[in-house]
Amino acid sequence: MRRTGRNILRAILLLLLILASAAVFRFGLIPERFLPFPDITLDDPPLIFVDTRIAALRSDPDMCRAILRPPQINAQPITDNVRPNGCGWTDAVRISKVSGAEIGLSALTCETAVALALWMEHGVQPLAMEMFGSRVAWVQDMGTYSCRNIIGNKRWLKMRSQHSYANAVDIGAFRLENGKQMNITRDYRADTPEGRFLREAHMRACPYFRVAIGPEFNEAHHDHLHLDRGLLRSCK
User: Fold this and answer.
1) Which of 80, 106, 112, 121 has the most CB atoms around its CB within 10 Å?
2) Is residue 84 domain-resident?
3) Range of the domain at 81
4) Does residue 9 form part of some domain?
5) Can you say whether the dihedral through the CA atoms of 214, 220, 224, 225 is positive or negative?
6) Count of domains forming the chain
7) What does the alpha-carbon distance between residue 201 and residue 41 come to, in Å, rounded to a whole number?
8) Extensin-like C-terminal domain: from which residue to which, for each copy (predicted)?
């Protein structure tokens, strides 16, 4: 009986240790420079432990900002803005270009900006060249910061949206250098090259963002892709 009790206690302690370790990596509590992996750069896509390595940048703002460099992204640090109601942002940047494409983001957390740059540089732009022989020249931003709860899903209505922390970005359309434009509302569900491009671009966001959802998720996302680096996980 005593041995059984000790085994149960060991199992409980091991489970708690595993859960604590998972939480440490999930919340990005270990700076990226202390992880046993090469430092993230925008030149090459991280191939292993991608989510953990991006999350670790949350604990190392200086290193995160140092990663955000042209030509993969044009970003300028902005002043922290924490609101009494819990909304606002810390360690955020303003973005004018990502992977050579024009975009206008007034506030996006550095961690999410890294995810955006990796997705555009190693996911979207190669896909555009492969399918259309032309790079993306412009990305329609449909919002980053907005102090509000999650909309469109009754399970999470009382939970703050990641937009409340400038930790999310909504994308509505892409325009290529050859003038072709692909719009989420019009093209996402279509059985056309434009529709296939948008659906594949969506899927290529999933390794870099914890949440990458679009029209197939619910009606609230009929006109955009929602991408964020929050605590939830969904790719649909």
Assistant:
1) 112
2) yes
3) 69-235
4) no
5) negative
6) 1
7) 21
8) 63-235
